[in-house]
């Protein structure tokens, strides 16, 4: 699993599978491992590229502030480095915001776009939550931080599974590449500064907007706004799962993604 030095940082990335390139961008508090449950289904059909955003996982975590445009530039530089001209692009939550910046800056690099549990601009409640998460990481340990964050990510049904939440928290505590507090702070502020409301109409690639019906962090109205603003975007609402549906309902998510991608005209010779 290699790293590349781009834009002044070491960026970690991982490539598995063969076929048309499919690039996955994770969101806040997550690195490339967040996609693990759907990877087997994806690599059966695509060359899957994952990365750790700056400040997460095994990528560098500079002390200076980050922007989502800067993080999109990191992704563009990675594609140049690995000599891939065009990808199917998928982003979850903050990763979907980075994906929007990437396709707006480099439309020639994006064949199609899938936005999972994402948004064009936060409202007052969302911004208050994200601001608090950015401040809180400097004042509590990771176990308590996870206990505060996870109720916004998973549904009551998921919480009702014995030992599930406790297991996730234990995994986070034992994970060998935990996020630095300053990185989470910078990510939170980058999200607060994000606004593509007046620009998403410039996205012209085939787009799927996917959200869980029970998502309370990035609720349905955010996905509706994206789907209404992006020309010819398709909106799909999954009954199962909330914001963390990649963990809670991975089969439903990957099925929706693959169904969308199969409908597209092949861009590459297999």
UniProtKB/TrEMBL annotation:
SUPFAM superfamilies: alpha/beta-Hydrolases. Pfam families: Abhydrolase_1, Abhydrolase_4. GO terms for biological process: glycerolipid catabolic process. Residues 21-129 form the AB hydrolase-1 domain. Keywords: Hydrolase. InterPro entries: AB_hydrolase, AB_hydrolase_1, AB_hydrolase_fold, Epox_hydrolase-like, Pept_S33_TAP-like_C. Residues 204-264 form the Peptidase S33 tripeptidyl aminopeptidase-like C-terminal domain. It comes from the Bacteria. GO terms for molecular function: triacylglycerol lipase activity. The keyword 4Fe-4S does not apply. The keyword Membrane does not apply. PANTHER family: AB HYDROLASE-1 DOMAIN-CONTAINING PROTEIN (PTHR43433:SF5), HYDROLASE, ALPHA/BETA FOLD FAMILY PROTEIN (PTHR43433). This is Alpha/beta hydrolase fold protein. It comes from Nostoc commune NIES-4072.
